[in-house]
Amino acid sequence: MHDKYFDHEPRGEFRGDFSRDTYDPFRHFSRVLMQQGRVQLDADWNEQVSIFWHYLRALARDIGSEHWAPTSNGSSWFKIAPNADKNDLLIGAGSYYVQGVLCENGNQEMLYSQQVGYPFLDSLEIEDKKNGTSYLAYLDVWERHLTYVEDDYMREVALTGPDTAARSKIIWQVKLKEMTEIPNDDIDDYSKKIKGDYSIFLEELGDFKKPGLGMLRARARKNEDERDAPCLVSPEARYRGAENQLYRVEIHQGGKAGKATFKWSRENGAVIFLIREIAGTTITLDHLGRDSRFGLNPDDWVEIVDDHYALRGHAKRLLQVDVIDHENMEVTLKKAPALDLEGIQNRHPYLRRWDHTANSNDGAVWVAESSGEDNEDWILLEDGVQIQFPAVDEATEPPIYKSGDYWIIPARTATGDVQWPKEKENETTGPMPKRLSPHGVIHYYAPLAIATVDNNGDITPIPANRDLRRKLKRPWS
């Protein structure tokens, strides 16, 4: 989905051990052609999948608009209705297309409160519904990256250990947003506007939409004197790492600059460790990494993730490693995790390593915006790699960074530089790294219905004119 905020193809979580992501829809490639006797890269294979993915979803979107279901058998697909007790909502079984993405709810309807991962941080808990209030029910759709840690079936047991390819899974979540500015007697007219004009629906979501509108620049370090002597090449003005890396800069705590924080990984956040047991500050792991590059060290910052943490969009305080016991595969943290540990082993828990040095109270790094001058306020990650969060002009509302927003930065030893598009600012600064919107996680949205709670606390039946789903009539049916 492209709009004025995106100048590249947004992605799903994209957390794997990848070399880079080469897909760009604006290059208009139709397929990838493998050649004999050539080195094969993960990026080529993944680009072919992305080309096909883009074509199919664009086709579905062009046929049926931003969101739709066929009328021949889609009358109940993702239909929203109160349950028998009128204290919860039922989500109809079947499929629905959102921005060309197929969402499937199996063969049986589901309660709103029974969705996997419920309750969500950015949605109403059904127990907290208010009397005499109307709520917009909508679909939030995104791609979650999964490895064998979350789903061991994808690992071939005949290999006796090593994992192979990862997977991307479509996640859909029905959410509720309180409609505070629309009087009840105007809801029918407003429902008609939302159903007929997708942009009005997006405006209604407002700051609920993800990713955020913050921007990032990236470069290898540049000396102060290089502005006046562009032909000089300093040893400091280059990427100095010993390995090719795919850096990931990810927003941890969302908000505006000064409140938002970020974390970064030199391995695209792909260094994870399956958790066997959690006991206070001691965590027993399945392994401690295949080598030092993918291992753990004292003082590393880590994040404990499970299915609920990922699906709810949590960003809890990061934790720091204190002691590592290699013999017993145990890691002792400096503080105990603030997690609901009941049943956590059934939710595929793992430890994710980050590589930053923290300066904020949540174990991450403060997002500090810069006015954008050539050598002002760049943040050093390591080995000459720098980033900058450009500020907007004073007349523009400061952007909100969303938890989970990320940018990926390929760094290459062959060029001593990062792969990042450039733009020419002016004659003084010369080519500057381009401001880029988040590479992901892209979320797709669709309105489903407007549900009203009466003064007795019961959810009233939803009339047809407040059913916001679009149904595509097949011309051959």
Helix content: under 10%
State the shape.
globular
Quantity of strands, as a count? 27
Distance from first to last alpha carbon: 29 Å
Q: What class, by secondary structure content?
A: mainly beta
Question: Order of strands across the widest beta sheet?
Answer: 12-13-16-15-14-17
Q: How much of the polypeptide forms β-strand, as a percent range?
A: 25-35%
Report Rg.
24 Å
| Unreliable sequence segments | 1-8, 223-233
**Largest sheet, strands/sense/barrel:** 6 strands, antiparallel, barrel
What's the structural domain tally? 2
| Individual helix count | 4
Features:
disordered N terminus; 477 residues; 2 domains; mainly beta; five-stranded antiparallel β-sheet; globular; 27 strands; 4 helices; six-stranded antiparallel barrel
Give a description of the structure:
With 477 residues, the chain is mainly beta. It folds into two domains: 63-210 and 441-472, no CATH class; 217-433, no CATH class. It has helices at 42-64, 187-196, 198-205, 307-312; strands spanning 67-70, 80-82, 89-91, 95-98, 101-104, 110-111, 133-146, 167-178, 217-220, 245-251, 261-265, 272-279, 282-285, 301-305, 319-325, 330-333, 350-354, 365-366, 369-370, 379-382, 385-390, 406-412, 417-418, 422-426, 430-433, 444-453, 471-472. It has a six-stranded antiparallel barrel. Strands 18-11-10-22-23 form a five-stranded antiparallel sheet, with no helix packed on it. Strands 5-4-1-27 form a four-stranded mixed sheet, with helices on one face. The longest helix is centred in the first third of the chain and has 23 residues, at 42-64. The radius of gyration is 24 Å and the shape is globular.
